[in-house]
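User: Predict the full complex structure for these chains.
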Amino acid sequence: MKSSGLIAGVAALAVGLGVLAAGLWLAGYDAASALAALWRGAFGSWYAFTSATLVRAVPLIIIGLGIAVAFRANALNIGAEGQFYAGAMAATWAGLHLAGTAPAIAIPAVWLAAATAGALWVLLPAWLRLRFGVLEVISTLLLNFVAESLVSWMVQGPLQEAKRIYPQSDPIAEAARLPLLPGTRLHLGAVVGLVLAVAVWYVFRRTVWGFELLATGTGPRAARVSGRIDIGRVTAFALLWSGAIAGLAGGIEVGGVSYALFQNLSPGYGFTGIAVALLARLRPLAIVATGVLFGALEAGAGAMQRDAGIPAVAVYVVEGVIILVVLLADAMARRARTAMVLPDAEVEPA
Amino acid sequence: MTTPALELRGITKRFGPVQALRGADFTLASGEVHALLGENGAGKSTLMHVAYGLVRPDAGTIAVRGAMVSPRNPRDARRLGIGMVHQHFTAISALTVAENVALTAGWPLRPAPLRARVLALMERVGLPLEPSAAAGGLTVAARQRLEILKALAADATILLLDEPTAVLAPPDAAELLRVVRDFAAGGGSVVLITHKLDEALRAADRVTALRAGRVTLSGPASAQTPQSLAEAMIGSAAPVPPGRRRAVAERAPLVRCEMLDLSREDGRGLALRGVSLTIAVGEVLGIAAVDGSGQRELLRAIAGLVRPLRGRLDVTGPVAFVPEDRTTEGLIGELALTDNVVLGLGRAAAWVHGPRLDWGAARDRTAALIHHFGIRAPDPDVPAAALSGGNQQKLVIARALELLPRVIVAENPTRGLDVRAGNDVWQRLGAAADDGAAVVVHSSDLDEVLERADRTVVVAKGTVTVAPAGAGRSEIGAMMLGGPGGGGAA
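Assistant: Here is the predicted structure of the two-chain assembly.
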């Protein structure tokens, strides 16, 4: 199972890059030098790998883990982008007020603020879902726009820098900034991502709560009737934890990379994070790998634009094709599995 | 000899590791009702799915009225005049009766002409229904009628019925079989998949029995007896069910209801009013009821899944519940058997240590259950959906008993099971009662209730009535329909 998933992933990557190369060639670009630039930007040097690829992978991994928590319970949180921004706003606010404290206090305080804000940002959708059955897909998606508008207002209003010229906040206190790996821009957030991946893996595989998430997600009626699980409660908690983790990603981005709040802080991490999680089939340790892959693509895209003059958005073609190929492989695998069902199990009419 | 309506020759089909059909032959003559018998997994549904274009055979030929065909999907089959009624309902709840018929038949949806056309169809077939009623609001018996109308709408001359009476009360089942006979008398041909032996003998002209994908018997129904059919299906004489019915009135009650009012499951009004009932240690209480009479609400209240609106309900736990729909409420099909056992035993299970789950222990226990209960599964890691219906139900029962329940509540626990698997379920429930549990069971098969329960109560018209001791089949059947004119909208 696992190795076939890996093969599908590698094949998908190859097809994606092939489609990109073909497209570039058709459009009259030098495909070989473009792909070379992509590689250089992502893996070409220690600095490129740590400071471009991994720095982008960190928020993708953390958000992907948050998505996995929600999706495992079949709570489709599409609002990680908004929760990320909520976390970033809270982290900036906290970071601005923590001057003079020790990093051992400031950093956890920023994380706590960010995670709390992320959870709060999903509180309304969770409540609407439980109370009125409002689809969380829609409510969480719409709150993304609210969050982006709120950031835009914050950086021109309450959180705008002291000189009131640029639409961004003042830099957060030194104490709230994350330590860097010497000689690179890679920050402590990478460790957080790894620890969190292991923690989520443990929860999924080894705890009652992880099992209740899975049962609620795969068979809500059986979970309620045969498992006596309060599926509303499980769904709500899955959404809140998912939001908290996405919020934490926003806090870590502010504390480790930007040191300030501004618009477009996220190049769509909240959405790419969904792809990262789905590509890993919601498996926490695989999310680390797919997060690095997408981080590399995004890093390489920058280099491609710089060195080969190709718009960075071309890389979205690769990401899109990868997702399509993996979904296709998944669907085919599922067909193969259902064909195994014994004959008197119900065959659905066409 | 005249050309058969449908002729299947040497049909072979393999699903992964499972050989479902091994060169099965089946001939359906024009104007006959042909019963197709077999245990679960014998291949009877698969064989009909081949004829209906749902399953492509690996080998074999299909002829309709003498012409070789190979239907690739149900639409092809319908064009050949074949209609099928599946085990589960396929009508769309939100649409009306007429719209559902039109959808299957490909008729235009303009309301006035459609209504006339549907009414004409109902008249011809002899199955009256209100065309503008929403399919979702129909009783089970009416839904079954709709399914048959759908199957016949596109001028079908061959009708395949997959256990059409499984969910019906005896009078409704008799009505359905009458319609089937009329259809055949008018020149149509009917395949009746069933595992009720007496039904096959009563309603069919000819019978074919399958065992493990092979035809073991085919011939006129008049030449057969229940014993000979059971032998053809199972390979040995049918197991004789042990009789029950013991006086347990003096024992301590484990379930006590007093003046219980229960809301309907859909929240629209009361399902049952003023229910008073006790179930004692060691008792198997049978519930006889037509679908939708309120027995579901009663059982779920006893199982602790819904709160009574009013009244008093004392149940001595632990309570085990066996839901009617094992594929959506009993088990999670895509999860492994171990996961499903973990699901059912909840947080009190031996493998739960605080927040931690010891999967090794759960898997070992599941493997032991598979062994003790004779569940046919290669290991505890296969998905529950890969098991046959009978084996799924064994798992559900095994899991329920693993709770060491004082009270066992079972909804239609033998639905869709063959004689042997059903017998196994009843034996397990009976043994649990003998060990001191109180068991309450609803079955839509009235004979089963009468045969297996110590005491029978009838749920009809919003109340619960204890059947008089020694009441017979017809007497209780009448009570189930609430006397003359009953049984409609309950």
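The mean pLDDT of chain B is 85.
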